[in-house]
Hints:
By secondary structure, the protein is mainly α. The chain is 66% helix and 5% strand. A two-stranded antiparallel sheet has the order 1-4. Its main location: membrane.
Amino acid sequence: MEFMTENEYIRQYFAMLEAECKARVLSQPAPTDGKSYCAPKLDHWMGCWNYTEAGTRATEPCPPIPGFDYLQNATFDCRENGTWYVNPATGREYADYSACFNFENAIKEMDKDVIHIYVTIALFCLSFVMISISLVIFFKFRQLRCDRITIHKNLFISYLLTDLFYLVYLSVIHFAEDVVLHNPDWCQFLHVITQYAIVCNFAWMFCEGLYLHTVMMSAFTSGKSVIIACLIIGWGVPVPLTIIYGAVRASLKDNIIACWSSESSFLWIMYAPVVLSMAINVVFVVNIMRLLITKLRQIPEVAQTSFISIHRKAVRATAILIPLLGLQFLIFIKRPEDKDSTLSTIYQYVLAIFVPLQGAFVSIMYCFCNGEVRKLKNSYQLSTISSFRMSRLLSKRAGSFTTKTKMEST
Length: 410
């Protein structure tokens, strides 16, 4: 799911203030009462200073950003000649935000935010590398070509696209301030395509549950028909959802500023079906566990064990499906209301770890620890060792043959 850090909030808030200032102040005509006024101005803190009579001091509330006391006011002096006060040290117009700024709190907030962003980006990079290696393994070995691995391949591709687009989007949002403030069309499109990749990722998690449940429920269902249905669900269904979301959000000016980095209620156009799919996956898991218990009871050796032991085995077998089906994300649906609370901080950091590493977890469990992959790895190592030994043996024989030939010719 999408989450917004302090930096994203600041940029979104600044872009909103800029748009409001242009409409409310900068586009208005000058007073016609014959008095001298300082011209309206939008400063670097997005303070919107209206026409101010010469020789007076203008005041504006401090912006509610980390490190600022929004209950205080910033001031800007309009000099007698109708120009804004200029700082002698810099030679630039200067609005006084000293009453707003709390240096120690600002440094703490910025350090915390920077650590959060770099950790998230690093973990996305790790996941991207591990998913890439897994896909190479899946596509390299023909022995792994089956319906189940086909579903895995598509899921891993969706992880790869999600990691790639999210990495680019996060980098733009946090390290390209000019881009965020100017809000170009390509940056808005980057947000939309990132959301499409995320929804595809969850759609393929649903397809994993659908395929496994279908196989266990009906042995006569055609694997090809299930694959076709999953391709439509995984890559096709997110398309209209993304188009509707993009069209609705683009129609409202307040929702398209700052490269759409702010949280929006319109995201539920795409995320409501995602939550529904996870709920259905929960039903699949429960039914799969019920089927496993039934089949375990039919095995004579297992049937003699205790009721608790049978259920423990079934739970253990289905527990590994939780990361594959993305069920752990159900606990992240609702963000804590108080953004300054300890619970909210914990939520942000847990989310920053689990979201990027989801692909890495799945690649470890369903590729690197896959029994078929490990057998192929062992056989590949044996064949490599055998080839190496054979080449050494042939080289030795060739060497001894050459030595013998030289001796005979001598």
